[in-house]
């Protein structure tokens, strides 16, 4: 019969019993659970040293200066691949978070080269169409896929006017600890969210572009008037891709 | 009456001894953590509730961007990766797989998440 009494209670019932006991103790003995142990000390012990999380005051964005972006240069693409553990392939079934696009105006012959990644729209169509709520926008404007809820239906890939999202077709191994990725999920540029949450203030692509001396990608907080990106956006003319769709992307381009 | 009590006693002792015996399936051998003296919670609580703790915190992390809180999968792996394989899920006796195969639980954490500690994974990729 001892076996029957040892049967585990459900955790929610335990939690309720615990809190009920706590409330009773608080009512009777000035929040003393036992001699020397008070509720406040338990609460303080349980509070972890975690980061504050995404702030709604921030709007992360990129400014890409296409006049400085050389055709054929793929420094930002390879930095992104290394940072996020992508294989670097460009087949239809390979994940590409940044694509280098060459454009040419037919009438004048003027050409430009530009990296196109997730544009981190303020009104993201991928979020609108997602049937499971896996595609979402963070408080700081970064559009992400929650792979725990993504079912791989690829509606978001259809909805995205920038072809920014990729589907993972094959089993992956040796993923980066900071960037979990797996077969059957859709994924795209995360604006190096793992770096931002650590407190770093640059993305792999912007860092590589600056380090190589091109300086064609500026990353920063568009809402912070003192930041370099806000100053540049204020001073030079820049445009959003497919601005006619009114999606208000966080990525802006100069010189196209 | 006394016979009934005796039988009840025998039955109870039988139950207890049955619970202690390993049975046909050998009990999992749980590898001790390679580093770190103390887990974030007592072992009994972790064994019963780790899945709820991880699931609760994952939503805060993915959706809210809150990192470095108490119940982090990366922190689990950093301490509990095997000394021989450097992983929590590579072979049948590694930390996560040992219990999950005994309990017939199929998890897909490591289809996406790295099963290696941060130090090992970074060395391997370079």
What does this structure look like?
The complex is a heterodimer of chains A (about 260) and B (about 130). Chain A is of the alpha+beta class and about 260 residues long. Chain A contains nine helices and eleven strands. Chain A has a three-stranded mixed beta sheet. Helix content of chain A is about 30%, strand content about 15%. Chain A has helices spanning about 1-5, 10-30, 40-45, 75-85, 125-130, 155-160, 195-200, 205-210, 230-235; strands spanning about 30-35, 35-40, 60-65, 100-105, 110-115, 135, 145, 165, 185, 215-220, 250-255. Chain B has about 130 residues and is mainly α. Chain B has one domain. Chain B has six helices and no strands. Classes of the chains: A alpha+beta (about 260), B mainly alpha (about 130). Chains A and B meet through helix 7 of A and helix 1, helix 2 and helix 6 of B.
Q: What key phrases describe this protein's structure?
A:
heterodimer; A: 256 residues; alpha+beta; Alpha-Beta Plaits; 2 domains; three-stranded mixed sheet; 9 helices; B: 126 residues; mainly alpha; 6 helices; 55% helix
Using only C-alpha atoms, the radius of gyration of chain A works out to 24 Å
Written as H for each helix and E for each strand, in order along the chain, the element string of chain A is HHEEHEHEEHEEHEEHHEHE
Count helical runs of chain A: 9
Approximate helicity band of chain B: 40-55%
């Amino acid at each position: 019969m001892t076996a029957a009494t040892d049967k585990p209670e459900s955790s929610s019932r335990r939690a309720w019993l615990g809190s009920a006991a706590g409330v009773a103790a608080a009512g009777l003995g000035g929040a003393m659970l036992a001699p020397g142990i008070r509720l406040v000390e338990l609460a303080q012990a349980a509070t972890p040293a975690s980061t504050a999380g995404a702030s709604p005051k921030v709007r992360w964005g990129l400014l890409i200066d296409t006049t400085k972006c050389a055709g054929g240069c793929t420094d930002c693409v390879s930095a992104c691949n290394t940072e996020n553990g992508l294989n670097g392939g460009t087949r239809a079934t390979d994940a590409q978070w940044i694509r280098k696009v060459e454009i040419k105006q037919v009438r004048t012959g003027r050409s430009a080269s530009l990296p196109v990644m997730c544009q981190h729209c303020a009104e993201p169509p991928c979020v609108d169409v997602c049937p499971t709520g896996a595609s979402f926008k963070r408080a700081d404007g970064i559009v992400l896929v929650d792979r725990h809820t993504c079912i791989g239906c690829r509606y978001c890939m259809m909805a995205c006017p920038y072809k920014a999202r990729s589907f993972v077709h094959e089993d992956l191994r040796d993923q980066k600890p900071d960037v979990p990725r797996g077969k059957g999920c859709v994924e795209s540029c995360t604006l190096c969210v793992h770096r931002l949450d650590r407190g770093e203030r640059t993305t792999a692509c912007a860092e590589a572009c600056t380090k190589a001396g091109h300086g064609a990608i500026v990353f920063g907080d568009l809402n912070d008037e003192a930041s370099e990106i806000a100053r540049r956006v204020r001073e030079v003319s820049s445009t959003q891709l497919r601005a006619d769709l009114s999606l208000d992307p966080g990525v802006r381009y100069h010189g196209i | 009456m006394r016979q009934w009590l005796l039988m009840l006693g025998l039955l109870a002792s039988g139950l207890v001894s049955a619970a202690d015996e390993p049975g046909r399936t050998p009990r999992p051998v749980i590898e001790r953590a390679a580093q770190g003296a103390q887990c974030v919670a007592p072992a009994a609580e972790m064994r019963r509730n780790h899945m709820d703790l991880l699931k609760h915190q994952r939503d805060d992390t993915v959706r809210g961007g809150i990192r470095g809180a108490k119940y982090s999968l990366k922190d689990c792996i950093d301490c509990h990766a095997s000394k021989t394989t450097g992983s929590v899920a590579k072979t049948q006796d590694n930390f996560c797989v040992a219990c999950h195969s005994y309990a017939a639980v199929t998890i897909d954490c490591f289809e996406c998440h790295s099963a290696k500690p941060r130090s090992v994974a970074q060395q391997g990729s370079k």
